[in-house]
């Protein structure tokens, strides 16, 4: 930004009359006239102002050079990302992944880079999914969503990776977020409908496994006294809904 300097004009309106030589000598000997003092002070101010102007210009030039470097770094990172897209399109997933990682390394710290970085994370995720590394795919999608919470492709890819690992509740949660962003998304609706019974089945299976482990633990302790958990029955109180244990031989 160009800064226009204000030129200060100074005019001297002092037009002294010609005094006698003795009077003039007595008035000026050993003293600085008002006109001389103002000139000296104003000269100092001008020097300070000029120095400040030079500092501002240097700072502006430095900022401009920094912006230029960041812009070039952004363009380079974008070119690397495009190369990653080309490699992905030809089925070279590991090579494409390395390009996305490089693009993330090159992307400068500037607002323009946020979208680029989120795309590179999401593209890295799909590469990991193609390579069967679903945990890594989930991590990359989470990073992409940290930069862009409404990035639907990242939500979709994370949901797909969760489903591959049988994280059905997590996949459903991502699909519900997609519906919040796009209520008419049929894919999300169908996926939620399809995964719902699988999630319930998994929860029941986990519950049975937990009960089985607790039963084994109880039998190992009660066995010392010639008893087992089968000697204890849970009886539900119809009035309160609470349970009590009764011992049976």
From TrEMBL:
It comes from the Eukaryota. TPR repeats lie at residues 118-151, 152-185. Residues 52-65 have a biased composition (Low complexity). Keywords: TPR repeat. PANTHER family: TETRATRICOPEPTIDE REPEAT PROTEIN 1. It comes from Prunus dulcis. Residues 1-68 are annotated as: Disordered. InterPro entries: TPR-like_helical_dom_sf, TPR_domain_protein, TPR_rpt. This is Tetratricopeptide repeat-like superfamily protein. Residues 14-25 have a biased composition (Polar residues).
């Amino acid at each position: 930004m160009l800064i226009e300097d204000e030129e200060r004009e100074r005019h001297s309106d002092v037009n002294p009359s010609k005094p006698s030589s003795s009077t003039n000598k007595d008035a000026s000997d050993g003293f600085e006239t008002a006109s001389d003092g103002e000139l000296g002070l104003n000269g100092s101010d001008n020097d300070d102002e000029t120095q400040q102007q030079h500092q501002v210009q240097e700072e502006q030039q430095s900022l401009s050079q920094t912006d230029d470097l960041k812009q070039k770094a952004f363009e380079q990172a974008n070119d690397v990302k495009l190369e990653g897209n080309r490699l992905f399109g030809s089925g070279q997933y590991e090579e494409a992944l390395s390009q996305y990682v490089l693009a993330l390394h090159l992307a400068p710290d500037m607002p323009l880079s946020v979208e680029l970085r989120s795309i590179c994370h999401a593209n890295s995720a799909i590469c990991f999914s193609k390579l069967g590394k679903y945990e890594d795919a989930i991590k990359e999608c989470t990073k992409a969503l940290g930069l862009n919470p409404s990035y639907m492709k990242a939500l979709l890819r994370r949901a797909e990776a969760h489903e591959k690992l049988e994280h059905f509740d997590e996949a459903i949660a991502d699909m519900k977020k997609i519906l919040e962003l796009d209520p008419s998304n049929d894919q999300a609706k169908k996926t939620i409908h399809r995964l719902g019974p699988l999630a319930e089945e998994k929860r029941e299976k986990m519950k049975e496994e937990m009960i089985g482990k607790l039963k084994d633990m109880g039998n190992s302790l009660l066995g010392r006294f010639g008893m087992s958990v089968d000697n204890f029955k849970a009886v539900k109180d119809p009035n309160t809904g609470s349970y009590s244990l009764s011992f049976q031989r």
